[in-house]
Amino acid sequence: MPDEEQVVSKSTCTDKESSSPVATSIFTAMRYLGEICLVILALVSYVSLQKGALKVQLQPLPVPFFFANTSVNDFYRGDISTPFSAVIASDVSLVMYYAPWDFDSQLARAAMDRIALKYKGQVYVAALNCWVQNGDCHQNFSKIRSFPLLLGYVGGNRGIQFRGPLQYTYIDRFVQNLLRPLKRIETVTDFYKLLSQHDAVVTGYFNFTNMKPAGFYPYYTASLQYLEHDVHKTIPFATMTNIDAARKLGINVPPSSPEYFDIRCISGMKLLFFHTTVLGKWMFSVCCSGCTSEATLQSNGFHRLVTKVN
Asked: How many CB atoms lie within 10 A of CB 119?
């Protein structure tokens, strides 16, 4: 019996010894698998936290958009109170609303720098960063969908949008028209010389014996607003103070209503007289479409038919 017990005992020990490595391997694998799962879980959690942080991550601090020696007043933090106060106080201003990352804004930067240098002391030139989320410009003008937006201001009035190519030549011509929107003519020769250079000329007669002749300000405003539709101002606005020359051109000036205007085309357009209140709308609808063959203007109960003579 002792021998049998010894045999059984030996056999049992042998089974335990043979099964021990397998159990150990399984236990080790499970332990490693658990650690791997913990590592993966930690990585997933970290990535999720990072993605969440990106959604609310603040923009980098704004930096100057123009070079240090520029003449452009660069409000790269998006402030609007200071530049708008300067616009109101200036006779003529040019303001660019930009986004630093925008290619067209970067393209216009050199042209704006040249404009500011050329008209230094004459035109207030500023640039506003409208991409800074906590900036006044972005918060007040969030509807700007395309950059840059160039606006010209005269006397602090409503901005006049520049719609031309973002090149120095075109922006410079726009600024020149802001500074001198009207051309002065005194004689019939002056009128026809100007007419020979353009398809049409808008001519207004004003009696400047009064400091503020009636109708002049709306006429002046219309000449500025016309720039939004014709950045090159192919149709100039002229003022005439010589009543004799005005009458020779066929402009019959009634003493009671002295503010009327005449439009002529080189090809021969009949005279047209109308009041300042409808000038701007009529100019773009008729003249900018190439002096349409027939157009009627009505204002304050009187009207004239305009016919192009081919």
From this structure: 19
What do you get for the CA distance between the two ends of the chain, in Å? Answer: 139
pTM (2 d.p.): 0.70
Run means of pLDDT, 10 residues per run, the chain, 310 residues:
42 49 67 69 65 56 93 96 96 97 96 97 97 93 92 92 95 96 93 86 80 79 87 85 84 55 45 48 51 34 29
Strand partners, 149: 97
